[in-house]
């Protein structure tokens, strides 16, 4: 049973409204059915002014937008104005049960919104309602692609609905369209990357690719605060270079985890068998103080199947960067392993991009290096959803400093708003395409030119010429007094001057 729908309020779930207004759409349904779900980034309400107010996470509509104070009225308002929130809808359907949904469909059996609601109920819950198939009416899309990015379309004759959801009931995060994402897509980054690679001689491109690969591997460990031995960095780099070539499976994830971990004496390999969290422990009580709580161990098989199925099928029908964001950030929220989740999360970015041929053959975009440069923004993106999720998870501490989740949470990892994650990843990819790839190629070209001109001036072993270059590079093109008095004391003043001039010419 639901409560009566709210009247005008000034505060909703500890969130101040810009003006007193009556909750509408998802906010009204959350309140009426006591839904314990992460709140959408933007909520709706009806104000008494004849101007829409968009402020502080609220959109205050005018009185003429007010829906009927019924389940159908608020569901229709939500689908029309707010897009799909699948986790919220599933909790609503579980809370209200089948009868109210059957009743509203019978009241308008051919209505475009009632058919969408009916389809979503059966798709999310996997249960068929006691309703006859629709025999007339034009087909409608399950997801409004003017608001959110959809996938391929498969017709459902029973509802006369086209299922264009970009996932399955096991895993289907959604991304809202906005001006930033449209601008990223219009930047034609894939085309720019191919052009940049084509403009570089093959031997130089191979060296550029090798450097970018090493840079990404190092950075992925650095994000986790690790400084592993060089052979581990190289081994993980080789795995990244092969991303996209092997289809994802549980066995493939386990193979990658073994590469990431290296020494498994103190780490359980394979899917977690206990709860998990990211955070710290209270110094006195050793109680967990979580920033993020991972999926329950009993939900991992189902969630992993959802992500693997998404990677095999639905990812191919989404923009490659959007697909990479959904897959990679979905994985890191689930956190299926005891250790190695962060690096595998970033591996999945490479996998999704390479699978679609987004990057030039043999070239790995150093996305991890850009993430490391923008680490604060990266953490904000991760923590935004984690923080909204924390209050919806019940847990108890274990005797050895871990925690056990005691309520149902799987849907919070299956369905979440991945818009901010897609924006962040697109910005990182844009940086690698427009800056890192051409800059590194230019650097190597200039380096080669420097070495050629240096060899015409003076004979020097490769080891020493590399050291000389490093000193110049570290000191803005000037050879320091220390270097001139030690490693390169044999150079004359005139030779030193001419070497610095060569460097300036090559790297101006």
Going across the major beta sheet, what is the strand order? Answer: 1-2-3-5-4
Overall geometry? elongated
How many domains? The number is: 4
The CATH topology assignment of the largest domain is Fic-like fold
Binding site for ATP: 289-292, 339-346
Domain Fido: 248-418
Keywords: ATP-binding, Nucleotide-binding
InterPro entries: Fido, Fido-like_dom_sf, Fido_containing
Describe the protein's architecture and organization.
The chain is an alpha+beta fold and 508 residues long. It has four domains: 1-88, no CATH class; 97-165, no CATH class; 186-433, Fido-like domain (Fic-like fold, Orthogonal Bundle), CATH 1.10.3290.10; 458-507. It is 51% helix and 10% strand. It has helices at 26-32, 71-81, 86-96, 98-107, 112-125, 179-186, 189-198, 202-223, 230-241, 250-261, 300-312, 320-334, 341-355, 367-373, 375-390, 410-414, 419-457, 462-474, 481-485, 493-507, and strands spanning 9-12, 15-24, 43-46, 53-55, 58-61, 140-141, 154-156, 161-163, 277-281, 288-293, 395-397, 403-405. Strands 1-2-3-5-4 form a five-stranded mixed sheet. It has a three-stranded mixed sheet with strand order 6-8-7. Helix 4 (98-107) packs antiparallel against helix 5 (112-125) and helix 17 runs antiparallel to helix 20. The N and C termini lie far apart (73 Å). GO terms for molecular function: ATP binding. It holds the Pfam family Fic. Keywords: ATP-binding, Nucleotide-binding.
């Amino acid at each position: 049973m639901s409560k009566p729908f709210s009247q005008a309020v000034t505060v909703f779930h500890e969130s101040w409204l810009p003006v007193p207004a009556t909750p509408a759409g998802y906010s009204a349904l959350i309140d009426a059915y006591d839904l314990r779900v992460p709140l959408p980034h933007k909520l709706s309400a009806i104000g008494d002014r004849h101007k829409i107010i968009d402020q502080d996470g609220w959109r205050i509509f005018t009185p003429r937008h007010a829906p009927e104070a019924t389940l159908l009225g608020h569901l229709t308002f939500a689908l029309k104005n707010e897009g799909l929130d699948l986790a919220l809808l599933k909790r609503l359907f579980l809370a209200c049960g089948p009868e109210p949904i059957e009743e509203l469909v019978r009241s308008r059996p051919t209505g475009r919104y009632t058919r969408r609601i009916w389809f979503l109920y059966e798709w999310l819950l996997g249960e068929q309602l006691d309703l006859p198939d629709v025999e007339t009416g034009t087909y409608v899309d399950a997801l409004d692609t003017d608001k959110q990015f959809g996938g391929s379309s498969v017709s459902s004759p029973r509802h006369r609905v086209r299922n264009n959801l970009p996932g399955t009931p096991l895993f289907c995060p959604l991304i809202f369209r906005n001006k930033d994402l449209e601008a990223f897509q219009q930047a034609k980054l894939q085309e720019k990357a191919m052009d940049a690679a084509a403009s570089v001689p093959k031997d130089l491109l191979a060296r550029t690719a090798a450097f970018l690969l090493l840079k990404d591997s190092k950075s992925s460990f650095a994000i986790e605060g690790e400084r592993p031995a060089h052979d581990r960095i190289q081994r993980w780099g080789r795995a990244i270079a092969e991303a996209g070539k092997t289809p994802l499976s549980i066995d493939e994830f386990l193979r990658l985890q073994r590469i990431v971990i290296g020494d498994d004496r103190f780490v359980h390999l394979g899917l977690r068998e206990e709860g998990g969290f990211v955070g710290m422990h209270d110094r006195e009580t050793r109680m967990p103080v979580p920033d993020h709580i991972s999926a329950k161990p009993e939900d991992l098989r189902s969630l992993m199947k959802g992500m693997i199925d998404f990677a095999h099928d639905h990812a191919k029908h989404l923009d490659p960067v959007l697909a990479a964001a959904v897959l990679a950030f979905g994985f890191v929220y689930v956190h299926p392993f005891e250790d190695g989740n962060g690096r595998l999360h970033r591996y999945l970015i490479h996998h999704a991009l390479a699978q679609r041929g987004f990057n030039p053959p043999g070239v790995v975009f150093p996305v991890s290096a850009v993430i490391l440069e923008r680490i604060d923004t990266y953490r904000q993106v991760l923590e935004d959803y984690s923080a909204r999720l924390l209050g919806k998870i019940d847990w108890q501490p274990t005797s050895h400093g871990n925690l056990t989740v005691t309520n149902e949470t799987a849907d919070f990892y299956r369905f979440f708003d991945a818009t901010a994650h897609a924006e962040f990843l697109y910005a990182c990819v844009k940086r690698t395409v427009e800056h890192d790839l051409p800059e590194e190629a230019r650097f190597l070209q200039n380096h080669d030119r420097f070495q050629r001109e240096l060899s015409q001036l003076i004979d020097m072993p490769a080891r020493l010429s590399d050291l000389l270059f490093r000193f110049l590079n570290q000191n803005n093109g000037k050879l320091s007094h220390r270097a001139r008095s030690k490693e390169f004391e044999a150079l004359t003043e005139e030779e030193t001057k001419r070497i610095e001039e060569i460097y300036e010419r090559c790297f101006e």
